[in-house]
Inverse folding.
């Protein structure tokens, strides 16, 4: 039995869920997303969100309110007479009156294994912390920060070669399938909810650019996870010959030396313990490139130093 849904989301992570809900026959009464922001080559053209672009192609009404806390916003939301709302990385707090408006509630897709990594940057934080796995969960929303009762979950192993973008893309697809299954269960009255444990709660604070500088004194695996957790944005970086270089992908390697020292002509770099080999880099103001291409433009001798 299809549901009448309001969809609320903003970045490209949200789009697969919207498309899968439509593909499985649910009626999308309206899409809520963030307002367009200036962008383009000169930063002057307003750029709609990825969710708005997808919704326009589907012919679904799009709303971009600045707040949901006014009586007018609540009346407009209620007027859609939705069975439920699906929320995926919307980026705006839903007040209690909005949460109570749909007949069956509001359901959020969150990219972590709650209660671990509640908050803004669960994908980045899971990689940076060295977690062995991540996942997606569907929860019925309450007014807390990702504290609602959990309905369904899927787990995914995190390997050392995964960047934040790699994990983002896999969880986005996994989450879309999970939300479709959750809405099917909700429609037939079979969606079961379980209260989150208060043990193991951690918070995924928004990434601060001040965190992005690489600390070569750390063990190699910690350096690798730091690099991959910030790739591609904002990008972990180090200085080389007084120029900033972002490192976007690397792998563990053998070797010892002073932290940040170039150990060979394959861009093996010493860490506090062990070493990493750089695979993909980006010089300041340049396009991202593979290590071999980087070395053709910036030939480095053994003993050079990343700081």
């Amino acid at each position: 039995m299809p549901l009448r849904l309001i969809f609320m989301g903003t970045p490209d992570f949200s789009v697969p869920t919207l498309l899968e809900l439509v593909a499985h026959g649910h009626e999308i009464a309206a899409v809520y997303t963030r307002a367009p922001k200036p962008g383009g080559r000169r930063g002057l053209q307003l750029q709609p969100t990825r969710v708005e672009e997808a919704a326009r192609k589907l012919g679904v009404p799009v709303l971009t309110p600045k707040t949901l806390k006014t009586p007018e916003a609540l009346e407009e939301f209620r007027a859609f007479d939705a069975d439920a709302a699906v929320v995926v990385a919307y980026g705006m707090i839903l007040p209690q009156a909005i949460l109570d408006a749909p007949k069956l509630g509001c359901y959020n897709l969150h990219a972590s294994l709650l209660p671990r990594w509640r908050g803004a940057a669960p994908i980045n934080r899971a990689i940076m912390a060295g977690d062995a796995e991540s996942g997606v969960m569907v929860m019925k929303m309450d007014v807390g920060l990702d504290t609602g009762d959990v309905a369904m979950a899927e787990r995914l192993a995190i390997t050392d070669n995964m960047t934040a973008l790699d994990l983002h893309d896999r969880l986005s697809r996994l989450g879309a399938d999970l939300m479709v299954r959750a809405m099917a269960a909700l429609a037939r009255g079979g969606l079961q909810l379980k209260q989150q444990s208060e043990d193991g709660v951690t918070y995924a604070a928004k990434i601060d650019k001040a965190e992005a500088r690489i600390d070569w004194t750390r063990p190699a695996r910690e350096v690798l996870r730091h690099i991959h957790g910030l790739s591609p944005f904002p990008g972990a970086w180090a200085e080389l010959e007084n120029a900033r270089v972002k490192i976007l992908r690397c792998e563990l390697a053998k070797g010892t030396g002073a932290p940040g020292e170039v150990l060979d002509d394959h861009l093996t770099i010493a860490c506090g313990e062990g070493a990493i080999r750089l695979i993909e880099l980006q010089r300041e103001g340049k396009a991202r490139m593979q290590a071999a291409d980087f070395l053709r433009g910036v030939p480095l001798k053994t003993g050079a130093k990343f700081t």
